[in-house]
Amino acid sequence: MAQADATMMGGAGASSGTEKLVTAEGVPLKRALERAQRRRKLMAFALVVPLLAFILTVFVFPIAQMMWLSVKNDQIVNAIPRTLEELRDWDGRELPDEAVFAALHADLMEDLERPRREQATGPMGIRLNYELSAARSAVSRTARAASGFEAPYKEAFIDAHRLWGDPELWRIIKREGRPLTASYYVAALDRQYDEDGRIVQRDENRRIYVSLFGRTLMLSVIITGMTFLLGFPIAFYMSILPMRHANLLMICVLLPFWTSLLVRTSAWIVLLQQQGVINTGLVTLGIIDDENRLSMIYNMTGTIIAMTHILLPFMVLPLYSVMRTIPPSYMRAAKSLGATPWTAFRRVYFPQTLPGIGAGGVLVFIISIGYYITPALVGGQSGRMISNEIARHIQQSLNWGLAAALGTMLLVGVLALYWLYNRLVGADSLKLG
Amino acid sequence: MSMPAYYTTKDKIWHYTFRVICFAIFFFLLAPILIMIPLSFNAQPFFTFTREMLTLNPDGFSLRWYQDFLESASWRRSIQNSFLIGIAATIISATLGTLAALGLSRSEMPAKGLIMGILISPMIVPLIISAAGMFFFFSSINLAQTYLGVILAHAALGTPFVVITVTATLVGFDHSLTRAAANLGASPTRTFFKITMPLILPGIISGALFAFITSFDEIVVVLFVAGVEQRTIPREMWSGIREDISPTILAVATILVLISVALLTVVELLRRRGERLRGMSPG
Amino acid sequence: DDPVSLTIVSWGGAYTASQVRAYHEPWMEMNPHVTIINDDGSANALASLRAQAQAGNVTWDLVDMLPSDAQLACEEGIIMPIDHDEMLAAAPDGTPPSEDFLPGSLGECFIPQILYSTVLTYRPGAFPDDAQPSSIADLFDVENFPGRRALQDRPGTNLEWALYADGVDPDDIYDVLSTPEGVDRAFAKLDTIKDHIIFWTEGAQAPQLLADGEVAFATGYNGRMFDAIEVEGMEAEIIWDGQVVEWDGWVVPADGPNLEAVMDYLYFATDTQRLADQAQFISYGPARASSSELVGQHADLGIDMAPHMPSAPENYFAPIVLDNDFWVDYGDELRERFANWMLQ
Amino acid sequence: MSDSSPDDGFVTFDRVQKSYDGETLVVKDLNLSIGRGEFMTMLGPSGSGKTTCLMMLAGFETATSGEITLGGNPINSVPPHKRGIGMVFQNYALFPHMTVGENLSFPLEVRGMGKSEREQKVKRALDMVQMGNFAGRRPAQLSGGQQQRIALARALVFEPDLVLMDEPLGALDKNLRERMQYEIKHIHESLGVTVVYVTHDQTEALTMSDNVAVFDDGRIQQLAPPAVLYEKPDNAFVAAFIGENNTLRGKVDAIDGSTCSVRLDNGSVVKALRVNVEGTGVQSTLSLRPERVVLGEGAAERPNSFEAEVLELIYLGDHIRVRMNVCGDDEFIVKVPNNADGRDMKVGQKAPVGWSIEDCRALDPS
Amino acid sequence: MSDSSPDDGFVTFDRVQKSYDGETLVVKDLNLSIGRGEFMTMLGPSGSGKTTCLMMLAGFETATSGEITLGGNPINSVPPHKRGIGMVFQNYALFPHMTVGENLSFPLEVRGMGKSEREQKVKRALDMVQMGNFAGRRPAQLSGGQQQRIALARALVFEPDLVLMDEPLGALDKNLRERMQYEIKHIHESLGVTVVYVTHDQTEALTMSDNVAVFDDGRIQQLAPPAVLYEKPDNAFVAAFIGENNTLRGKVDAIDGSTCSVRLDNGSVVKALRVNVEGTGVQSTLSLRPERVVLGEGAAERPNSFEAEVLELIYLGDHIRVRMNVCGDDEFIVKVPNNADGRDMKVGQKAPVGWSIEDCRALDPS
Ligand SMILES: Nc1ncnc2c1ncn2[C@@H]1O[C@H](COP(=O)(O)OP(=O)(O)OP(=O)(O)O)[C@@H](O)[C@H]1O
Ligand SMILES: Nc1ncnc2c1ncn2[C@@H]1O[C@H](COP(=O)(O)OP(=O)(O)OP(=O)(O)O)[C@@H](O)[C@H]1O
Ligand SMILES: [Mg+2]
Ligand SMILES: [Mg+2]
Asked: SS3 of A238, please?
């Protein structure tokens, strides 16, 4: 019978470390292997493709498209191309000269000829108003009257609206007369452009987003901390119970998870408000008196309590699934080595739950940082979060560019956090019971 | 659990304190649900316990909100919508998610980390951003305010749950079983339907339930993407809360909680069955 | 006629219900081939309209919205300009619509329907019988009228009231508010009650907060307050002093799918009788002068509706008429300032 | 073989019983005394209660009744972390988030030992198991055998008087296992520590122990040094469990002092040592080691001698197992050393077999 | 022992190589031919590539280069489910959601066999492994040994010509394992099927196989029937891996035909069989089975004879392992049968040891 003869081998094996490995036929080993693996790779990939394509089209692409809005800026370019041309050499100090006003008049006149749906001055006015209050009425009023203007146009425009005499408006037109802009991001960071085009802080009483981001971050940290404080003991308790009992308690965790968010939020209103169940109970028991009922809702406390409740399952599930897999022999080993139960817990058990804490913490933090409904209902003034502001800009103030800028910043933050988590712990540890 | 003989008084106190703390937390979890159920029988149109209710006077209780709910066409339609959208979205996400999980759990899957990241992004991206993105996108391709639009949106939101649970199930899946099936002469398709699928079914079902609940309880995307025709239960509750806060939503919620309990029981039974099949003793 | 279905967007709840009973039902009786779908998307109507227009896929036929939103939409060209005299019915006495509709209510693309107001309401039980509040100034007087106040979480109404309570004449309020000093003055006044405020967002929250006893004062829409007090028996009183009045009405999306039917509906639904009918179901005042005399009793309660109208003479003694142009121009800036103030 | 002089009673189990569920006793009336410095092995089939005994001793389970003492003092009311017993767990239970050094340092740290002393002791312990260079590694970076050594070092580093080991070598392959057996035995001898060792591998038990307690069904079936266990099993269970064994069944015909005659089912009569036989007429199991059977020349001279047929020859390297038919038993095994004598046997060949009386033990019937 | 007459080449591996990562070869140039009806065992340490070979044969891995044929036809491009090879997996891989009957019926079903025929074949297969009454049970309700039999039955029920078994007995305890070895061997003989069997237990390999391929480091080190493997190892690895072995190291002094003299490090000269020695002056490893060493009387007469000291006695029931110092080697093991002769040895005692030339093989140095 053939015995493995080790003499003639295509360089495979020990001969030299640096030389490329080849198979007996002389094909490089890597390539031969790749050929054999390609089919399997394709098979695996083919299974993922449908979902990947689906998520990319209905989810990733729309978000990318939305993010595009945060830099898209064609309203002014579309409306007054000639004016912008004339403004090119303007120094930005004195009022522009007559030629610019004449060009603006020509632009407005041309716009008036277009069918109403395609008229570009309306959107331009709205766009300019984001930067300067009353700019919208300056544009719309003038556009309506422009057909009656005679040269010299400068006076006519300034007569029609005082803002045309304000170099600030012209600076804005010049600055925003480009197809892409950073000004939404500037605004989202509570900054603005000054007369020289530098980016400076806004008036103190108009700064909101940075502190709102800060508040959102702080609330998310607190909520994550609370869910951890409440989630850890019960996850631990469930993990030391026999399966049967643990699953019963698991239903207690999942039941609120599966009850409508709106209902839970309303229920918290019933419980927490000044005339609510808890306050009334405390008054009846004589713990507090009627005048000093606790205010636990329509403020930060309310947001924290309701959101902690809502997000607690997201902490408990990964924690529990990690704790279940920690064999009891570690604690026993620690005790047999002389550690008190507390030391054994602190030094041996707790560190091993860190992946679960990481998964739960990241999940809760990410969800809470983008939360919207509950803060809107129970947050009052101090419990609102950045998402409420994004929603308001999309739905009410219609400043979609600013909404997109705020959303992009939030998204980038969340993705960075997730990436970090993935690096440190690994996304595979994300489990749900 | 009996306590060992060496426990000191301090140990015993801690032993009981810990349990008390745990039960307090469980109570915290259940409190809103416990409060909601009696209030749904309130005879008054407010969210407060009336004096009659507190004294257990039968006049304080009524079924009027249940009646309200059952008689209201818009509630009925919203229930139909919720189930229609939820089930359709769940079918899409369960199918695509299971397929993807099968691919992802193969060792030769290229760029696993990146793809996994993309696939579970609907769970990671703040809802408001997803909703806004879909709102703009669906408006531009005539999908806004259509059933298809809402279903696709919810399917996208539900897939991460399916991918995660099925992938986790597959980690414990014994791949020598599929090899054994191939070895015994079964084609890959046959192997999937006769061997793999029955064994990972508990994972698929629990992922699908997560996906279903995600759709069933989703409000933000619905607010942005759905039209009046596609109103779901949460959307109906939302207008209830905006318009006039009536205990009807509590009646609806109570009914839904009962459904949840039923579903959870099903999941638990399935899990036990799955473990029995895999030869572990049911815990 | 081919079956047609109209999607009409409004505010939902009791308000939509009043439109259904006053307009939709009688009109559909006359036009059996038409069905009306009610969408309560008015709160975000402008966003949706813009999105629909940009997508070139307009699915809405008729939208109920506020005049400030209508003005923006009109400038963006996403709703139709209206020739009121051409398109709408004259008054029974032949007065053309442009004269019959109350002064200042018509807009380039806007057909007014009702006049509503934001009013101050209080819980009598919160104060001693001999010291009940009666004016906007009392809202800002925490000394004599302690208790929490529920205000809407936006600058509109709140800033106007702050100046009014600070002694500015209702007619001058917007001039003052156009100046930085005026804005500072308004916020300074608001500062005095800041610690006593609970903000509400959604319309139903205000009466709920009053009913739950959470607050002593609440601002709110007068129709909703009427409903809570008269229909559901909530204990509360309305203060008509300084009521902030505003119109609400129809706009027609440009390129809507069923323009002909919409025009027919509008002609019917905005005539003198129909506007008066709506007041049977909700306590908002009709936008036509000729409708006022026809306002009758509440359809279900049988109480006289006239005294509950914002426009009733005994209520209309110190109105502040909301200036939409002002809010369109300065709204963004003031909202930012207000948000900043709330955060402090 | 045992060269320790046990001062009986360093660890004692006194009528200990244990039930987990209140219905069945997992440990039934256990009495056991382990001397200081002794290497004591608990051997038994799966589920016989070995781990349970160890856990009661370590304090992780409480005895349902009875008393356990350590160094003369009852330990029921001493919590596990104060018992000062080292323990090697079956899966090693090395703390995965600590390095090897930190694992070893842990028991010293919780005893409040100073840093330099700790380092010195850790180093000495690592050297003892020849893992001096591995202090910085994590357990996951070690092979099974290396992990095992670290677990051993950790259990010994705080110098306990008593070390418990629960199937510490169960997961290792044969070569590694043998090397580790040797090392453990070596450490036991050089440190003089008392070891209670659990295994279900009889070779391991025989090789390593001073005394072996054979467990079955929650009871100690026999407690004796290895040689006694093998040579003089008290009952059929021990005989069958320890080593290979031929069993012949029959009825006791006659008893003559310490020997007896047993009539097998096919009528042959075998003379055997009377060990566990109540009287004549009862059923008995005869136990006979394969290597004590003489095959071929010399067989006829033994007190028991029969004609046998070779059924199968199994080559095992150092010896050949011969399956034969003896007295109607088809599974009768004889071990023949693999040297000149054994090499030319054939299947079907007839040959005489024989054995002496003292090698054949008449035991209880089961 | 081998009584099959292999028609060479039912299964062949022709210069097969395999790499998983493109960097290291796990199987290096494998040439192997297995005859029809042969019981062929692959034996080797963990990680030596045994499972990989089996998986390539079954079609679950593709060879990186080289060709595998089955019945003369290359099978590289035949998908696993069309190869018609039965396989018993290490963990059995019984389908947990099917009953035993359904498990057995599965391969027949996918072959489109009719119901009644299926039932009949399943019944016959179950009877063959003596599990006729268990058709309705689920795998989880069976013990390890029973599961093993079902796995075997399932691999055989569709009557493949070739059955692969990957450490099928690895998880069973010793007694069960021995019984199953016997049953598998029995079934192989009665069905005449070709078996490729993987194990890392040398006893198992020696007991069961017609031929054993000893694997190490991705190569076949020796392919031979068991007796040849044990008696005449080709190299030091095989000598060390199969059976227990004493190794003595030294330099070749002189070569005399088929024998040679090796001078050990302590100066002693040993005469040995020349097996794998290139010439005089090179290093060599001498390999000597412990049971071939004669201790005490008779030792002096052997061609190699030395004075030795007893260092340790290890009692192992049927024999005693004596660790001695021989020619400066402290780890020299001699096996003494546990009978009258062996019983009265003492540690420290001196005694002569000796062995014959043909029992001592001079191999390559490693
Ligand atoms: N925590 C427990 N709860 C209930 N029964 C238990 C528990 N631990 C062990 N048992 C039961 O007690 C009996 C003895 O178990 P034990 O672990 O002591 O056996 P063992 O001799 O160590 O076996 P093995 O060799 O398999 O480890 C078994 O029947 C087992 O099922
Ligand atoms: N899927 C795989 N990917 C990468 N390397 C692998 C894979 N499977 C096995 N190997 C490597 O190939 C080598 C041979 O593995 P193989 O499983 O064939 O060994 P084996 O002889 O069966 O060992 P054992 O007795 O432990 O089962 C090992 O070094 C192993 O780490
Ligand atoms: Mg055990
Ligand atoms: Mg293997």
From this structure: helix
